[in-house]
Amino acid sequence: MKIVVSTLMALTVAVVSSLAQMPEERVVTGASIGWLPGAHIGYTISSNFQLGMQLGARVNDLKDGQGSRTDVTISPYGRYFFASGDDFNAYAIGQLYISPDAKFFSTPNLNNKYANDGFVLGMGAQFMATKNVGLWAQVALLNLPFSSTNENVSFGIMAPSLGIDWYLDLD
After folding, report:
1. Are 22 and 45 in contact (CB under 8 A)?
2. What is the pLDDT of residues 84-101, one digit of tens each?
């Protein structure tokens, strides 16, 4: 009986994996934990390119030694997948992050003390568990803050994130 169950499980995984390819022209929703935990929505323009918007919370250690601060952050992003059609796809990501207290939204009397906006470049990989569900992991490689008030330019392997994407079939 164990052999039958094991064989059925192996066949199920093989069939599901063969169906799991990067979807094209589909709406994608998801959630993530790590550097910018929150929810996101996007659109897969082609099997190689995805645009989206993330809404999340970002914890910032303040430069002036006054502890940390949690900011609600909006973050448009673009992902470029290096290969398409496989279960496992590596990608590059570019992500702009803007918090409501950042210089774009702050009032002049705040003097941008807690500015939190910038651009991040990173790398990641997504595993298509089924044809509609992708699991991913990514790291930031370069952080370019627009203001040096609260952050410095950073380079290296930092800010790991894990997430899940659901590719919606709206037809």
Report:
1. no
2. 666 889 999 999 988 765
